[in-house]
Fold these 3 entries.
Entry 1:
Amino acid sequence: MSITTEEIESQPAVWAQALLEQDRSVFGLPGERVLFLGCGTSAFVAESLASLRERAGLGETDTAYASEWKPGRHYDRVVAITRSGNTSEVLAALASVDPGTLRSAITGVRDEAVHDLVDNSLVLDFADEKSVVQTRFPTSTLVLARQAYGYDVDGLPDAAAATLAAPFPYDVSQFDHFVYLGSGWTYGLAQEAALKVREAAQAWSESYPLLDYRHGPIAVAHPGSLVWIFGEVQPDLIADIAATGATVHADDLDPLVQLMQAQRLAVALAESRGLNPDTPRHLSRSVILS
Ligand code: F1P
């Protein structure tokens, strides 16, 4: 079994452990203006967190790729999400935050450069990973954030375990194109799902905001496409996608369990193509620029 699979399958236990964390301040105190930053997977987690927090009415919340962000707007708190704690663009962004702004980190490690640049941090070291491809660290961050923002996630570890106990519902080798659609906080999940497929399986994958899919991207849908929808979807959109010959997948699982299914798909697809998901092409645990 690959390390990536072991880490995917550890999620029910790791999520349960995440929910025991007591200090939630890194997710922003009520009323604060907050910015979440990250790169790659962590940028998509940042997007989802920002959407969840604003929708919970806890305060204005922005999100940015660390590599694109420039100081200019006022924030009470800037939060960096970085599993490795040493991604160059994240460190550079934190170093340019206006003095007087609280700086926080959500990370998987204790002794890394990010700790020198922040006022407080949440260390989810039990969710850290050996695999380059991130799976349980981002989902654990999201489980905990949802609880911190007042959403009911108590049943999630059991829901994940029940889904893992069932075989994956598709023979993924029948498809050559994977599309993930989401809305609100699940758009970040859709982007992360599509990234997993590219990273682990070197396959053609895309992600879009749910209703934007009809605005152009649907042109490449075909019988080899699997279009996977996070969260709720209107029947007319399903019908429009199905008319292309694509397979449309929608279900009632929690969106984080759906992301776990995308992780399983990425591994199954990699293995069906003779690839090892533990050794993704051209990738390393973090990007450290000289
Ligand atoms: C972010 C990241 C990963 C990606 C790759 C390079 O790392 O972009 O999402 O899979 O390994 O680094 P981090 O800042 O969260 O450690």
Entry 2:
Amino acid sequence: MNPELKEKVQDIAQQLVEWRRDFHRHPEIAFQEQRTSQVLRLALEEMGLEVESLAKTGLRAKLPGKTDGRCVALRADIDALPVQEQGEREYISQNPGAAHACGHDGHMAVVLGAAKILTQLKDFFVGEVVFLFQPSEERPPGGAKLMVEEGALQGVDAIFGLHFWQSLPTGKVGMVKGPMMAQTGDFNITVQGKGGHGSMPQQTVDPILVASQLVVSIQSVVSRSVDPLKPAVVSFGTIHGGTIYNIIPEQVSLSGTIRTFDSDVHATVERRMREIVENTCQAFGATAEIEYKRGYPALVNHPEMVDFASEVTAKTLGEGRIMEIDPVMGGEDFAYFLQKVPGAFMFFGMGDGMAYPHHHPRFDMDEKALPEATLLLTALVLEYLDKNK
Ligand code: NI
């Protein structure tokens, strides 16, 4: 490993903070990342990289080393959330209704940082590095799928990505071999009954009663139809119906989300949910419409790449940095990259002193994590190319 790597990262530590805060001040949500994309492009071009646009606001930059060899990619997601930021900080969002409340501003800063350092080292490594800046991670169908379709992984042999993680202490790294983040699915159910006077229920088909049965019965899918050793979640997020206490309404609508780590389990949950909705409605004389949207597939890390990334983490940041973590039920479209090439996705701790979770209006990150994450990404690239030359 290049002994000067740490120094090189220290030299750009201030720049990392400036990049991150600039993105933080100017958040843009899914596929509207025009300014973000422009700032990234200028920074990459200034480093002398060849940059192409793809997936609307996405970017792909290439850095060839001294001779041909393997090609390794780093990915950062670039979108913000439709959240009104709260708090006092000097770099608070200037865009009303949008905020970098998930840490993607930091992801961009550290991948730019890695690009900057690797550019300085390009005469010393064999192979090629590709930097992917991906729009719309937060909103399915997301930007990763489109990036892949438009050739983001052409010639790429391996990929790494990270997510800054508030529930891990600053500088700790968490990875899971195999499934690490969930397959997601969202549904809307509209129950159509027959409205009428609350005092004369015999003249109506009460969609509130049907919806209530559905909420309870659908909870039995996970407990009765899914292997208890395979995780699954079904949660209802909204239920709307009715206008006043003495009217039985015509309709009730419900929505919710399904999370699993296994696509067969996912299919079972979806099928059982549909059966319960259809048959329950029939039993009560109501009808229903179900809209079901599959979200991201499960994010499945390649075990040998997790081993490799763990070794590099210990070697670069020191022993004791890896933390045992459990898979999480959140979704992440880095999954699409991992379906195509070997790679690993990791959570990088930045939670010291941070009280608010991801997606909270007061979310923030410990910026001490920025140089450390940059160092790790840079080392992953160099070690991968060195090992596979
Ligand atoms: Ni995120």
Entry 3:
Amino acid sequence: MTTTPEQHSYLRAATRSAELESLIAAAPGQFRVLTGDRPTGPLHLGHYFGTLANRVRLQDFGVGVMLLVADYQVIADRDAVEGIPGAVLDLLADYLAAGIDPRRTTVFAHSAVPALNQLMLPFLSLVSVAELHRNPTVKAEAATTGERAMSGLLLTYPVHQAADILFCGANLVPVGRDQLPHLELTRTIARRFNQRYAADAPLFPEPEAVLSAAPLLLGVDGQKMSKSRGNAITLRDDDDRTAALIRSARTDGERTITYEPDRRPEVANLLLIAALCSDRTPEQLATEVGSGGAALLKSTVTEAVNERLRPLRRRRVELAADPGYLLDLLAAGNAVARDLADATLNEVRQRMHMCYQSVG
Ligand code: TRP
């Protein structure tokens, strides 16, 4: 059997991720993680089990975590910005409610860290236009924006992400499989910068991917769970809204509940959600619900989700009531990120012979 380059790099990353897990456990202080989200809406269960819980786990291990509110990335494929301030507050409340501890994790926003953004300029000089056009994730994203012409920022946002990662010297990036090409580009940029401008003393480490182990969750309509589709169980919702959403979930015509992901994807997805929330297996839950059918399945899922999220949601309500506190935390994180970015940009300028201050 032949493997495509994409499969090859996935397999390599998967093997390496497993090794990294044991290195992290042995010496968490050696690692710095950068990760983040675009502020486009409240986080949902897919984010929670996919990435958020893992960030909290790394933080609690003692890994330094830099958590980016990627506001500049929002305008890569849309122009409406009115919703951003609210989405930023939502994101901050979701992070903290889920266990992100601002004393240990730096939360910051693109737009507040000028030197980070300035790094994009020398980085752009290190990649070719053909390389940018080849990026499969950018191609897929451009396809979903439909009629809209691809913006220069959408084409180059993987370079911006390289700046996000490299400005703070992150050496670990938790990613989903679809983001692997971006990380490969970041590694290329780090390597080329070092070769071209820092041959004697490399400036940037080549960051590595930690692949998320979490299964892909579908929304209640059986499509990909997504902020914009209205099919997502969000952390922000309350018990009643979650109950209503799950009651409306698609199932199938078969009475007896079984766990068969290929043949019965909607039912399997509901079982998976309940299983993740109650630390059981989908098979176990299927047996318990059995001939109780879709109605019992839905009430079981609702109870599991609401039970699991209850403490998080209680904290979240308190946090959301105090936007001043959330914004102060962000301001403090921004200040930390600015210091790091200024120091990195200075190093970059020095390596590029672009420091003109008199030394005297
Ligand atoms: N693209 C990510 C998202 O949409 C957010 C992000 C921006 C990011 N820069 C990054 C993730 C750098 C990892 C590394 O959620």
